[in-house]
Structure formats: C-alpha cells, structure tokens
Amino acid sequence: MLRFPPSPSSLTRVAVQCSVWRLACLSGLALFCLLTLGIALASDQPTAVQISVLDEKNQPVAGATIAVMRDDEPESTAATDAAGKATVTLPSSGTYLLNISKPGYLGTGTSVDAVASENPQTVDIVLNSVALSQQSVDVKGDGANAVTDDSGMRQDLPTAQAKLSPTRPATLTDALPLIPGIVRGQDGSVKIAGFGEDHSALLVNSVDVTDPATGNFGLSVPIDSVQTVEVSVMPYLAQYGRFTAGVVTAETRRGGDKWEYSLNDPLPEWRIRSGHLDGVKSATPRFNVGGPIVANKLYFLEGAEYLLNKNSVRTLPYPENQYNSQAINSFTQMDWIISSKQTLTASLHFAPHTLEYVGLNYFDPQPVTPNADFHESTATILHRWSLGGGMLQSTLAETSVSSDVRPQAYSQTMVLQPTGNSGNYFSQESRNSSRYEWIENYTVKPLHFLGEHTIQIGSVVGHSENQGQFYARSVWLRNSNGQPLQRIDFTGGSPFDLSDVEPAFFVQDHWAINPHLALDAGVRYEAQSITGTMRTAPRGGFVWSPGSSGKTTIRGGMGIFYDSVPLDIYAFNSYPSQRITTYGPDGLPVGPPIHYINLTDQAVQSRFPFIDRKDKTGNFAPYSMAWNLEAEREISHMLTVRIKYLQSWEDGMITLQPEVINNRHALVLGSGGSAQTRQAEFTSRIGANGNRQFYFSYVRQYAYGNVSSASSYLGNFPYPVVRSGLVSALPSEIPNRFLLWGTYSLPYKFMVNPHLELRNGFPYQPTDALQQWVETTGPQYRFPRYFSADLAVAKDFKVREVHAVRLTVTVQNLTNHYNPLQVHSNIADPQYGNFFGNYNRKYLLDFDFLF
C-alpha cells in the first residue's frame, strides 16, 4: 500500500487551482444571470405565430380549428385556410397550448414557445386521419400531457442547436457530450453514467448499430441526418435491451416537401507555422440534399461528409506529433408513403474510415502506435402499418464492421518503460463481424379499463458472426535505465469463427389511470446462445403530474438490465498464449519462463433468480439493478428545471487477470467484476424559443468498481500487459461537472453560441515498472480541474431569395486555461506526478452554403 504525500509545490498548485475554481464559478454564475436577464427583457412583446397543418400525405388540411390556451385559459381561436395555414397573434412571449381538431382526423395538442421576433414564428403540425390514429404524430413541440406520454424517462438533445455548438459535432456521437452525465473519455469514446460504450446501446431508427464484436459505437451517422436524439440512463421500459448503463436512440429525418440543399464547412482549415502555410490541418465538408421524388409519395434524403483531421499532440515535437484520421460518412434514406395506412423506409449508412498513429502521445510516439482501417455499414428496411387500430412496425437490418489493425513496421520489438515506450506496436488483427436483426413491434389500440392502457408487444431475433485472427509479437519490459525486467513472448493462436443467436421478447403496459397518474409495467425475456444464458428483466415505473396546471411532472422507475456480451470475448481462446520471462538485476533470467494458458472461467454461481445458465464455461450475463427518480417543473414560460437521481449496482462484469488455477498459471477470463453508480443531476432550460435558448446542468457522480476490464486486451487496440484486479474509481468518473451551452440570436442575423464546461479531472491510477496497478490509499488521483470556454459567432448573408452564406468564427478555450493532457503516472518515472501538455486558445473560420 503506497501513499504519496503532496509536496509543497503541489500544495501551492492546489491553492491556485482553488482560486481558479472560485473565479470560474463566479464568472459562470454572472454569465448565467446576464443571459437569463437578457432573454427575459425580450419576452414581453406581442408575437405572431404562423401555423401550418398537413395530413399524413403532406396535403394541407383546410378548416382545421386551432384553439390557443395559456394557463388553462382560452386566448383565441383560428381556422386554417385552403392552404392549411393560419396566423394567430399572441399578446406576449411565453408557452401556449395549441389544440388542433377537425372531424375525420385525430385531434392533437402541442405546446409552442412563442418569442418576439421580426418574422412570424412558424409551427408545422401533422394531423393524422382517424384511419391512422396510431401513426406517429410529428409535432414540433413538447407533448401536451406528460402522463399520456409512454416514452419513459429520457433526456432530449435539441439537434438544431447542437449543430451550432462551438464543439462542431460532425456525427451523432460527437453531439452526445452536450447531454448531462455523458462525457468523451481520454481514449475518445463516449462514457455514459461512468461506463464505456460496451455497456450501452446505440439505436438508430430502432436498430442496434453497435459493433457486434466489441460493442463500441463506431463512426455514427452524420448529425445533419438526425431528427431527434434521446438518451435514457437505466430506462425502465421493457422495450430496451442489451445494456446496463444507458440507451441512445436516434431517429433520422425524412426528405421534405420541397428540395433543399446545404453545404457546410466547404473550406479546409490550413496549418500555419511561423507565419508560413504548412498544408491542410483539417477538412470537414458536409453536403445534404433532400426532397420529393414523387410528390406526396416518395421522398429522398442524403447526408454525406468527408472528415479529414490531422491532429497535433502538444507533448511531442513537430512533425512527429501528428495523428491522422480520414473518413467518408454517408447516410441515404428513402421514404415511401404506400397508402394512408402504410409507409416504408429504407436507409443505408456507409462509413469507411482510416486511422493513422492511433493513441499517439508522449509515452507512445509514432513508431509505437498502430494504424487501422474500418469499414462500417448498416442497411435497414422499416415498414409501418396501421392495423386493427394499432401500429405494427416491422424492421429488417444488417450491420457489418470489418477492421484491420497493424503496426507501423515489423522490424523492432515493442519496449515498455516507465519513462516512455519504443519499438513497434506488438499486435496485428483482422476481423469481420456482422449482425442481422428482425424486429417486430406492435402497439395495441388503447384499451379502456380503469383508465387507458397502451400495450406494446415486441420481439427481436438477432444473429451475429465474428471471424478473424489475432497476431502478436514479443514485448520487452525495462526499467528507466533500460535494464530488462520481463519479456512477453506469444505462442500459438488460431483463426476464430464465432456465431451467436440473440432472441428477445417483451411486453409492456402504459396505464394512464387518470390525467394525473400513470404506471408502467413490463418484462423482457432475452437470451444469448453463445453464453448459454436466458435472462428475465422485470421493470416498472410511474409518472405523476400533481395539480391541474400540468407544469410539474414526477417520474420514477426501477428494473433489471443485461449487457449483451460482445463476440470478441469468446475469441480469447483463439488468442496466442503468453510466456513471460523475468530478469534479475544482473540481466539474467530468474528461473524458467512461466507459460500462461488462456482460460475462460464459468460464471460465479449466485442466487440471482432471473438468470438461467447452462453448465458451461463462458456462461456470462453481466447485469445491473437500478432505480431512478426525477422531478420536472415549468417555473415559467422562460424556465424549466429538472432534478434527477439514479443509483445502480452492476454485477457479473467481465474481467481478465492473471491467476494460478490448479498449480497452473493462466490468464483467466471471468465474470467476477462489480461496480456501483450514484448520479444526481440538475438541468434547466432557459428561454422560450429555440433561437434564444440555453441549457445549464450540474451532475454529481460516483462510479466505483473493477477497473481491470477485459476490453483493454480484447478490444481493437489491445495493451500487451494483463494487469491484476483493482477496485477503484471507474476511468470516466467525474464527481462534479457544470455545463452551459445554447444559442442566442441577435439583430441583423447574428447568432452567438457559447459552450462552457467546468469539471473535475479524469481519475488515473499509478503503475509500477512492470506496468501493474499500484494500490493506493487516500483520495483518488486525478487530473487537475478542467475548464473550457468556447464561443461561436455566426452571421447569415443573404445571396438570393432562397440562398444564403453563413460565416462562423469559433474560439476554443477562450480563456486559454491550462488543461493538462498527460501525467507521469509510473512510480518508477523520475518525473512521477507531473502533469504536462495543453491545447491553447484556437481560432476557426467556417463557411456554410444554405440553399
């Protein structure tokens, strides 16, 4: 057990950091108050709202009655003209309820956040005929009654505002860190509630698009193609499966009634060094086109982007500090309105991408890093059919991921040292994985018995495959002086060819007892043939809206959730085994080499009653038990706040660590890992209109458990040393995180988009000269507090009546705050404990062409 007391210099740094922390908090509070005041001053003027009502065939609905309500009091009524349009003048900015009705159509209600503006605000509403009473109602706005909403507890991401953020998201996953409780880890992957991507599910149009081999999200669809994004952490609805942390669900947008084009970021970013042009630093042009091929029948959408990034690592000298990525990301969608009761949607996501010098940093210079090629694609056919007063949704999908990971060269042996690594990367892997899914989901016509019951019944049949081979070469472990400590040799290994069948069935009921109270109850049954397990996941929840105003909503739920075990876990038996030779101070071997066999254990027996396991090795079923509670309050039309708390216990986590079994040394793949998570969130939406709206959040998080995850050795970029087990803070635990972002429109078509983030640094764990964890006592070791203030200012220039050019100036790390990139974390390193590296203030200029 080691405990390292802080040095006097470190105490000085702590004092300075505390001062910076207080100053940043006060600055953020002041900015928060100014923004709120500025929005409020612009909220008391009369405003006009233009309402357009269409049917499911995108035809105007004439003679529809629009009743405008505020605080349960009628404001005005209007009727749509022959073009399906009506204009209402509202006395002041605020939130109003619109009730739209017409005989022969299913009435609907929506809220609209009206704000004073030079131009009338527009609201588009789709009013479905009675024959399509269970068809999705596409409304721009929030539902009028949270109790009748059966979508459960979720966090919505406003994609229109997210695209304007100075973080410049290009894909769906790039935008996720704008949601409370989600951060991008030091390895670049998305972390939800403290857990990695392999513990969460990513659904695009209801289809699981994660890598079947690793469970990672990969290169997701372009952000311009996304209509809605919802994130649910431990959702209690039985329709969701294959996760223990959270679910990201995204729906893509359809081509519109007229052809629209846009070209974003067409110009590259140039690298300037010492006043001279030094090539292209990045290029991220995005092109979008959509419209009707056949009016009111067939629609087309294409979103394509080319992503070239040549990033610099500030801890290495130029030009050996460059790591590159290049990708083509295309999403194509066709929508066919077959009849008033049927629609058909077909989509194809195609994303080949190349990575050079993966994981480049001070300790791993370019020769030590690998290169990688990935080819990802997902094809989906989705059919919706209004049947028997309900909605039947049928989906067929295929996802494939191929990867090729290789070293820069094969001439040098990889050497690991406390002060930095050298040689060439030790492994090479080629892999092809795929998943085929058939999904059926039927929402029954509402049943009226002691209230209203909305029942969903669904099934999923998935088949996954994973073929490939893992190669490895010898690795040296040396001390800081270059003396040998250990040598790892790899022997054997063979190609792997794995397959898995994952059936699932669920039923859930949303029971609206009255306009103020609803209960959710459901159960999900799922299995994995490769694990030999069958799992039962009961779940339940409630939603309560006290009072008559509907401005307060309280939700809660609890349930059991299961991870889908990635297929790479079962490729471990085909990996080459390790033979480790240990050396003494004289440089000679100490005894004979120790051969570690690859051993897959059987799951630890427990009394958990919801898992039925076969008596076989690898019968893993990681699960979590979780509950959550939230309260949301619309304080005024300008301010909505939400408080949420969640807690989970995860068990059966898959680990890999060296052990001695029956007097034999082995690398044991087991399921004895566990973790606990507690997370409290406060979020608020400030502003009544999307063009003048800000989102503020504070998250308090605790995530503690086994950090010796098997994915560090069985993922795309394995680390050669298998470390012994350690219980500590999870690698992405952030105890405190403040986030403020949003959009504020100014006169003359100016738009300001700030992004402020203040949080604790990521945790890290010390290692020794043999690259093993060092168990410590006392507070968790962490990077210093992180603070970044980013700002994007955009201005639209009208070229023609329907054409415009948008000029955007972005400043990242506006305050030039020191956010260290790395730390000397090896106790055998003479510089142990020192942080270094930083990205300074950065200016960017972008052009967007809008057609």
Description:
With 851 residues, this protein is mainly β. Helix content is 5%, strand content 53%. The strands form six sheets. The chain has a 22-stranded antiparallel beta barrel. Strands 8-13-14-11-12 form a five-stranded mixed β-sheet, with no helix packed on it. The longest helix has 34 residues, at 8-41. The N and C termini lie far apart (64 Å). The model is unreliable at 1-44 and 130-144 (pLDDT under 50).
- Mean pLDDT score, rounded? 86
User: Which descriptor suits the 3D outline?
Assistant: globular
Q: How many strands, which pairing sense, and closed or not: the largest β-sheet? A: 22 strands, antiparallel, barrel
How much strand?
A: over 45%
Number of helices: 4
Terminal-residue CA separation: 64 Å
Number of strands: 48
Radius of gyration: 28 Å
Content-based structural category: mainly beta
Helical content stands at under 10%
Contiguous low-pLDDT stretches (5 residues minimum) are 1-44, 130-144
